């Protein structure tokens, strides 16, 4: 079973990543991988969070939607997961 | 016209309608204080930033409007944190504006530098650090917009000192931030709500602070009376429904009356309106209302099915929902269910001690309630006295009980009472505290003396951290430790030392006459109330147990 990915569109400024990772930490949700980059004119960023299969994902998404700098959240299962494999290889390499 | 960042902040606060702020100046918010000197805003000098935070909370909780507190960088900001976290858990709209070291020095471990943004991040609805002066024009109104919209909450704004001193040419002011309008309710959900109520034989309303935040008390009363639905309140919901109404069931949960918890256990429909299924209310969650369908109405979508799955959920303003469903609601006496309620209430009532025992806090609080004006605002600290207030004081109106429900912060009561008295002049604020709690923000007696507000402080003095002592007795085999106070402060003399009038009811021949007399005298006073040292708050649901498994306790009762 491939791991779910949560896709976020967020305002691109310092502190947004803290809000998102902080939310995961204090609600005791795990993140396995993060991909993030600016889109368009750089005012927003798209973020992909690789997470564990967990019945609480709908609750995580609702909590993420409440963050002021989060514009859009959805769960993705149709992504090309090889990108996370390559990331994994990269972080495993010396 | 050129203005400094500090002048921009004060102008924006004035435009928000802010008349009073509480705070303490220091190195990194001095420019803001310099601008405040020229502003019509009344500044209340607290004696500890946590006091300033709770004064702001008192103003916000008493009115529903956003209130502002100020602190400098470093220790000023860290001292505010408890009050901010408290506002987050109880959904109170406060704006905390902190000074920060100049932008060029951030990250250098400068004097009184701390990462206020990082510290406030998990305890605010949202937080800002201002990185250029133009941002102030967006951030300040946006902070009010966020604090007041949907489910209210605290917002922190960290303002480096150089952002306060730089200047900007202002040609046009932004609109003040205000709460978003609520979207209309889904008519299909409202129809289903009415339908489920009409099919239910044993419905109970389980209501909380959301009713008060929504200003929906009158709508709730009309709704409950039309369909004959009894109302159980959470701690934060007390006052949302009048305690003298025959449909009133009092508080549910850990220290609720036995009949209240038993009725919830028998119910076939729970109308959970403006509540979040807090563990103090539900007890063991899987056992909570296990025979009932649950209809959950809340403004915060993330509360729906967070703790307990809802059979029907409506995300929206609970006042809107109540008004929308009213035209569809049948008149119903529910005589059978009401009869069962009367039966359980008779058999398992909230028990009061024998009336001849004036030192029992429940008796004292009941007597106190007969001597306060209607509309008197009661604030509490946290512990046994708080639970006795919740049980014994009959709240009739919303926003007349201000109490730290979610975070459970000792030290809340006195500054919150100061804030309430500032925000509601002409109404007395009564702080019911304990000898443990009062010492946690005692310094605010100086603020109170300076402001000469109509605040009465009752210190229910049992020489213990009573609610902890009670847990050691009940759940730790009476292995008492660190819960009895070895020193015995003379609170009346201490209060007199602050310049306040004070009484010790242990020295009065007719204590309640003294209480009545002092409540009618303008200005502040402090009253020490000696109570039994080892009395327990009963009934009590042991932590982790179902609400029907209450400890009823020994009979010192009538």
How would you characterize this protein structure?
Chain A has 94 residues and is an alpha+beta fold. Chain A has three helices and four strands; from the N terminus they run E-H-E-E-H-E-H. In chain A, strands 2-3-1-4 form a four-stranded antiparallel sheet, with helices on one face. The longest helix of chain A is centred in the first third of the chain and has 11 residues. Chain B is of the alpha/beta class and 558 residues long. The longest helix of chain B is centred in the N-terminal third of the chain and has 15 residues. Chain B is globular. Chain B starts with a strand and ends in a 28-residue tail after the last strand. Chain B folds into three domains: 168 residues, Rossmann fold, CATH 3.40.50.970; 161 residues, Rossmann fold, CATH 3.40.50; 170 residues, Rossmann fold. The chains are: A alpha+beta (94), B alpha/beta (558). At the A-B interface, helix 1 and helix 2 of A face loops of B.
State which percent range the strand residues of chain A make up: 25-35%
Helical fraction of chain B equals 25-40%
CATH topology of the largest domain in chain B: Rossmann fold
Count of helix runs of chain B: 21
End-to-end separation of chain B in angstroms reads 73 Å
The CATH homologous superfamily of the largest domain in chain B is termed Thiamin diphosphate (ThDP)-binding fold, Pyr/PP domains
Largest sheet properties of chain A? 4 strands, antiparallel
Number of domains of chain B: 3
Percent of residues of chain B in beta strands? Answer: 15-25%
| Biggest β-sheet: strands ordered side by side in the sheet of chain A | 2-3-1-4
SS class of chain B: alpha/beta
Uncertain runs of chain B: none
Which regions of chain A have little confidence, pLDDT < 50, spanning 5+ residues? none
């Amino acid at each position: 079973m491939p791991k779910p990915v949560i896709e976020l569109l967020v305002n691109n400024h310092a502190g947004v990543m803290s809000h998102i990772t902080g939310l995961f930490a204090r609600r005791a949700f795990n993140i396995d991988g993060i991909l993030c980059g600016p889109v368009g004119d750089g005012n927003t960023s798209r973020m992909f969070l690789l997470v564990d299969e967990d019945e609480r994902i709908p609750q995580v998404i609702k909590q993420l939607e409440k963050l002021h700098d989060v514009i859009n959240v959805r769960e993705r299962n149709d992504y090309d997961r090889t990108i996370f494999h390559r990331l994994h290889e990269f972080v495993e390499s010396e | 016209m050129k203005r400094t960042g500090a002048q921009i902040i004060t102008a924006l606060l004035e435009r928000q309608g802010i008349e009073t702020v509480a705070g303490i100046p220091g190195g990194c918010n001095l420019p803001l204080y310099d601008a405040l000197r020229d502003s019509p805003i009344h500044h209340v000098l607290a004696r500890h930033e946590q006091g300033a935070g709770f004064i702001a909370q008192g103003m916000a909780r008493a009115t529903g409007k956003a209130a502002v507190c100020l602190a400098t960088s470093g220790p000023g900001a860290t001292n505010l944190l408890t009050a901010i976290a408290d506002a987050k858990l109880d959904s109170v709209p406060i704006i905390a504006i902190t000074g920060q070291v100049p932008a060029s020095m951030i990250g250098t471990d400068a004097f009184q530098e701390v990462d206020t943004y990082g510290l406030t991040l998990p305890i605010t609805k949202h937080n800002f650090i201002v990185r250029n002066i133009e941002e102030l024009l967006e951030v300040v109104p946006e902070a009010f917009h966020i604090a007041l919209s949907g489910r209210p909450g605290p917002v922190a704004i960290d303002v480096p000192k150089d952002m306060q001193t730089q200047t900007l040419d202002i040609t046009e002011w932004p609109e003040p931030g205000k709460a978003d309008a609520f979207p209309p309710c889904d008519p299909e959900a409202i129809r289903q709500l009415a339908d489920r109520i009409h099919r239910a034989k044993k419905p109970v309303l389980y209501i909380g602070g959301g009713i008060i935040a929504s200003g929906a008390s009158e709508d709730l009363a009309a709704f409950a009376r039309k369909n004959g639905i009894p109302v159980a309140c959470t701690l934060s919901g007390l006052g949302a429904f009048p305690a003298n109404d025959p449909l009133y069931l009092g508080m549910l949960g850990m220290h609720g009356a036995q009949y209240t918890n038993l009725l919830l256990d028998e119910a076939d429909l729970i109308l959970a309106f403006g509540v979040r299924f807090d563990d103090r209310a539900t007890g063991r969650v899987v056992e909570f209302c296990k025979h009932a369908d649950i209809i959950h109405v809340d403004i915060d979508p993330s509360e729906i099915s967070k703790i307990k799955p809802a059979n029907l959920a409506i995300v929206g303003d609970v006042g809107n929902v109540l008004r929308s469903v009213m035209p569809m609601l049948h008149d119903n006496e529910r005589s059978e269910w009401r009869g069962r309620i009367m039966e359980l209430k008779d058999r398992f009532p909230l028990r009061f001690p024998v009336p001849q025992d004036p030192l029992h806090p429940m008796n004292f609080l009941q007597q106190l309630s007969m001597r306060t004006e209607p509309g008197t605002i009661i604030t509490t600290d946290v512990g046994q006295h708080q639970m006795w207030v919740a049980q014994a004081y009959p709240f009739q109106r919303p926003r007349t009980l201000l109490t730290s429900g979610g975070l459970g912060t000792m030290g809340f009561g006195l500054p919150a009472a100061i804030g309430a008295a500032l925000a509601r002049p002409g109404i007395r604020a009564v702080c019911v505290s304990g000898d443990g709690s009062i010492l946690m923000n005692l310094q605010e007696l100086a603020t109170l003396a300076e402001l000469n507000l109509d605040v009465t402080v009752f210190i229910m003095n049992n020489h213990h951290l009573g609610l902890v002592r009670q847990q050691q007795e009940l759940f730790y085999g009476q292995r008492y430790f660190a819960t009895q106070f070895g020193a015995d402060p003379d609170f009346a003399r201490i209060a007199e030392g602050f310049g306040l009038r004070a009484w010790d009811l242990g020295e009065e021949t007719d204590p309640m006459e003294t209480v009545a007399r002092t409540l009618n005298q303008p200005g502040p006073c402090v009253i020490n109330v000696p109570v039994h040292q080892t009395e327990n708050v009963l009934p009590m649901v042991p932590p982790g147990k179902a609400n029907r498994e209450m400890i009823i306790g020994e009979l010192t009762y009538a």
